[in-house]
Amino acid sequence: MIEGVLWSIFAGLMLGLYALPEKFTKEFEFENTWGLFFMINTFIIPNIAAYFMVDNFGEVLGAIPNSVLLGMGVASFLWGIGVMMWGKAINYIGLSLGFSLFIGTIILIGSLIPFMIDGIPEMHVFGTIMLGIVIVLFGVMSNGRAGLLKQQESEKESEVKSDNMIKGIAIAVVGGLLATGFNYANTVGGGVIRDAVLANGNPEWVSAIVVMYIIYIFGGLSIATYFIYQLTKKNLWGNFVTPQLPRNTILTTVMGIFNFAASALFAYAAFRLGQNGGTVGYAIFNTVSVGVAIVGGLITKEWLEAPKQAKTSLYVGLSCMVLGITVIAFGNSLI
Question: Are 144 and 305 in contact (CB under 8 A)?
């Protein structure tokens, strides 16, 4: 159990740090950087990983029942749409509130999905894990409040129209719901793929690579459609013709490696955590990634000029997230 928790935390650390190289790209617009990243992340890296790390990969895929593969594919495609909706929500309501609503929805609903599929454990275990999730959600919302207070202080003259606020909140929540397709796909396919991987002479950890391969390929289809449309609409294809392309490709490749590895480590951690691994691992994975992003902001002095009330709310949020993770891990140990 401890090993699974540690792997979940490490996966969350990698997810929280993966976007850092994006700050160093040059002569690219948002759509260029993230479009290139997602192409590398969802199509190139999964295929390289499968080719070099999975023995008898074709036989492993062939052993997965069509119904399981279809369920994973649809859920993963919806996950891709959800991720894109999150980006859209930020345009309406800002990063802090959009991030909090999106991740909050993912943690709450995504953590419940394994219970819906595999069944609810004994009440004392279920109650303890749910208490931890509620504490984490309180922390995420407190962080969102801190971001709003910080933003209001620095942008007193700008106001978000009420209709845009409602629209942004709705998009963030729906996007979060769709993004939970990631955990649904992992939960539905995890056991079946593990058996297929072992039957073809692979070690158990390789099943995490195969699970993420399916999720990323199908999710990449919806993501690619979105970025092709945006790059065409904004006439940004020409931005790829720049001397900075090799540099930017290296940076986005590093982002892709970190992102894919983080997800694969989460899948492996879920296996190691046992019966409630999908719920416990998913909650820890996403919570740590949020915490890392926030701590990164503190280290880079993004909160130096923030009002005291915002800092207090931020520290309360971080404390609740740490406490919530501890409670969740303890609940899993009660099995």
Answer: no
- What is Dmax (Cα atoms) for the chain? 63
Q: How far apart are CA 147 and CA 95, in angstroms?
A: 8
**CA atoms of 109 and 256, how far apart (whole Å):** 26
CA 178: distance to chain centroid? 12
- Indicate the range of 92-101, 228-237, 284-293, 323-332 predicted with least confidence: 92-101
Picking from 263, 335, 334, 325, the residue whose alpha carbon sits closest to that of residue 5 is: 325
Are 26 and 250 spatial neighbours (Cβ–Cβ below 8 Å)?
A: no
More confident residue, 97 or 2: 2
**CA–CA dist 139, 325 (Å, integer):** 11
The pTM of this model reads: 0.83
247: Cβ contacts below 8 Å, ≥ 6 apart? 25, 26
Question: pLDDT digit string (tens) for 177-209?
Answer: 999 999 899 999 988 999 999 999 999 999 999
What do you get for the CA distance between the two ends of the chain, in Å?
A: 10
Question: What is the CB neighbour count within 10 angstroms for residue 25?
Answer: 22
- Say which residue the tokens 């309406």 belong to: 92
Cα 181–187–192 angle (5° rounding)?
A: 125
117, 133, 135, 138, 329 from 323: Cα distances, Å: 27, 10, 7, 11, 10
